[in-house]
Design brief:
With 227 residues, this protein is α/β, with parallel strands linked by helices. The protein is built from 8 helices and 7 strands, in the order βαβαβαβαβαβααβα. The protein binds guanosine-5'-triphosphate and magnesium ion.
Length: 227
């Protein structure tokens, strides 16, 4: 498959220190046409900087990161994407590595490619344990072996985009998107990517809210798909 239209979605919540670098480092030679869309929920200068760097900015008026992801999926479909890449706006993932995520889709071997954080800084132990637990749990629920279910770097073809319109979670999307995709026969694979320490801004993850919200979302998704 040759890539005609690539849409890159970046969710941001107060990422004014990194958003320009993320946008500028996205390779522009991967498709005939590339559009970068920032889904922003910030009170800082992120949207101004994103527009200056050439992105289309959509302001998110309600909800959390799950809502932002879903808005990104709908936008990708509206803009007629062949492939959509979703990358966090805090520069923890490397935009130059985008071809690694596109390759399995372009070779026709996968519909959704997850950037597995293979080369990475040492995560705080609690995050590391949480990541291992939820990756195991998502693998059990989905029937697909996933080693990094919480990644913020992924590529999706049109078939995967349409399947993920079924997403419901408002708080986050990472684990639910894998369960929904697996239940709809979307071919999922993981490729190793680099993951860096956050150097600016703040994580949205709260150690108390996160596991609770994820468990509720996953249980709902599982029950919905079983019925
Ligand atoms: N539009 C939007 N973006 C969000 C929201 N919450 C977080 N983000 C963005 O989503 C991306 C992922 O959030 P992070 O806080 O980095 O989550 P994380 O990478 O799992 O956690 P850290 O490793 O601690 O950074 C970042 O670009 C955030 O700015 C939200 O409610 N709306
Ligand atoms: Mg982050």
């Amino acid at each position: 498959m040759t890539l005609k239209k690539l849409i890159v979605i970046i969710p941001t919540s107060n990422e004014e220190d990194t958003i320009e670098s993320v946008i500028k480092q996205i390779p522009r030679n991967l498709a005939t046409y590339t559009k970068i869309v920032v889904i922003d929920k910030s009170g800082d200068s992120t949207p101004i900087k994103a527009r200056k760097a050439g992105a289309l900015v959509l302001e998110q008026s309600f909800g959390g990161l799950g809502t932002a992801f879903r808005l990104g999926i709908e936008t990708g479909i509206k803009l007629d994407a062949d492939v959509l890449v979703h990358i966090d706006g805090d520069l923890q993932y490397d935009p130059y590595e985008m071809p690694l995520l596109l390759e399995p889709i372009l070779r026709g071997e996968a519909d959704m490619v997850l950037g597995r954080r293979a080369v990475q800084y040492k995560m705080p132990p609690i995050k590391h344990v949480g990541n291992k637990f939820f990756s195991w749990f998502v693998s059990k629920l989905s029937g697909v072996t996933i080693s990094d279910a919480q990644t913020g770097y992924r590529a999706l073809n049109r078939k995967a985009l349409e399947a993920l319109l079924a997403l419901n979670g408002d708080y986050t999307y990472t684990q639910e998107s894998i369960i929904i995709a697996a239940k709809r026969s979307i071919r999922i694979c993981e490729v190793p990517v680099t993951f860096r320490k956050r150097t600016h801004g703040r994580s949205f993850i709260s150690l108390f809210k996160y596991p609770f919200n994820v468990l509720v979302t996953l249980t709902r998704a599982y029950i919905r798909d079983m019925c």
